[in-house]
Design a protein that fits this description.
This protein has 254 residues and is α/β, with parallel strands linked by helices. It has seven helices and eight strands; from the N terminus they run E-H-E-H-E-H-E-E-H-E-E-E-H-H-H. Helix 6 crosses helix 7.
């Protein structure tokens, strides 16, 4: 990896295989390590055990370790106080939280599918991961806290989802919400994937659109409206909207 100038940080979790850990000892941890804890799979005790095992096995300092507390899917139906409490169960178990290189809070609230949203209607849902981040960051102003999320994709990957045809839908990130411009399945619509031309026009006509110069993705959304490019497919629109999402988050984090 290093000879290709790829700056990567290996990730360890409580159930990492011994063979994988042995591989990391062979000169593959020069950039430090990241310990990832997932809720509700792991407990605070798992975090402490994994930290101690990592320090001993790799003979590195806490200052070379990133701690990723990954809440995974956080439901809009639950209170922010509940999600905050979940994070602090792990955070408060750390004896020396300021010693670590980074502590990363990660979560995502985009649902597993868009079936609950009406076709040919603009729907909106709160990005509660953004609200949660602001609450916790305010409480931990002096901690080395970093932000992470899953964009406009459901946090828990389902390999079976590839077998199902999704609708022609654009999922666009605003400061505090996800906007869903839902179409029909291409096979159920005379326009097919051409629906993306119409949906992208609906998006750029909406005040939430950040403009063609905001990101590479926004530029392609604009070009789709004007039919300078093809309508693409679901995979194409994941690229466009995730690129916009990355730039939006960077702008919000400042």
């Amino acid at each position: 990896m290093e000879e290709n100038e790829i700056n990567f940080i290996p990730v360890i979790h409580p159930n990492s295989a011994e063979g994988y850990l042995d591989l990391l000892q062979d000169g593959n941890n020069n950039n430090g390590l990241c310990i990832r804890i997932k809720t509700p799979v792991n407990r605070p005790e798992d975090l402490i055990t994994t930290i101690n095992t990592t320090l001993e096995k790799f003979d590195i300092e806490e200052s070379e370790i990133d701690l990723l507390i990954d809440l995974q899917y956080i439901d809009n139906g639950d209170s922010l106080a509940h999600h905050k409490s979940t994070f602090f169960r792990f955070y408060n178990s750390l004896p020396r939280f300021k010693s670590f290189r980074r502590i990363i809070l990660s979560a995502g609230s985009f649902p597993i599918d868009v079936n609950r949203f009406k076709v040919n209607r603009i729907s909106r849902i709160p990005r509660i991961e953004e609200s949660l981040w602001n609450i916790i960051k305010r409480d931990l102003a002096d901690a080395p806290l970093n932000y992470g999320d899953y964009g406009n994709i459901h946090p828990i990957y389902n390999p079976l989802s590839q077998a199902y045809e999704g609708s022609c839908t654009i999922k666009y990130t605003s400061d505090t919400e996800f906007y869903i411009f839902r179409g029909k399945k291409a096979s159920n619509c005379e326009e097919g994937s051409g629906q993306y031309h119409k949906k992208s026009k609906e998006l750029i006509s909406c005040p939430v659109y950040d403009g063609r110069d905001f990101s590479w993705g926004d530029e392609h959304i604009y070009k789709c409206v004007n039919r300078e490019i093809t309508s693409g497919n679901a995979g194409t629109w994941v690229k466009y909207t995730l690129n916009h999402h990355f730039m939006k988050i960077l702008s919000l984090l400042g």
